[in-house]
Amino acid sequence: MIEAANVSVHIGRKRILSAVGFSAEPGQVTAIVGPNGSGKSTLIKALCGDLSYEGSITFNGRELAKLQPAEAAGMRAVLPQSITLSFPYTVREVVRLGLLRGCSGALDGQDEHLPERALAKVDLAGFAGRFYQELSGGEQQRVQLARVLCQVWTPVLEGRPRYLLLDEPVSSLDIKHQLLVMRIARDFAERGGGVVAVLHDLNLMAAFADRVLVMEKGRSVAQGKPAEVMRDELLSEVFECPLKVGAVPPGSTLFVLPQAAV
Amino acid sequence: MFSAQMVSPRSLAKAPEGDRSARARLVLAVLALALLFVAALSIATGASDASALGVIQGWFHQSGEATLSDRDRLIVYDIRLPRIVLGILVGAGLAVSGALMQGLFRNPLADPGIVGVSAGAGLGAIAMIVLGGTALQPLAAILGIYALPLAAFAGGLAATLILYRVATRRGQTSIATMLLAGIALAALAGALSGILIYVADDRQLRDLTFWQLGSLGGATWAKIFAAGPIILATLAATPFFARGLDSLALGEPSARHLGVPVQRLKMFTILSVAAATGAAVAVSGGIGFIGIVVPHLLRLLIGPGNRYLLPASALLGASLLLLADAVSRTVVAPAELPIGIVTAVFGAPFFFWVLLRRRGILDL
Question: Mutating which of B17, B100, B105 best tests the A interface, going by the most A Cβ atoms within 10 A?
Answer without folding.
Answer: B17
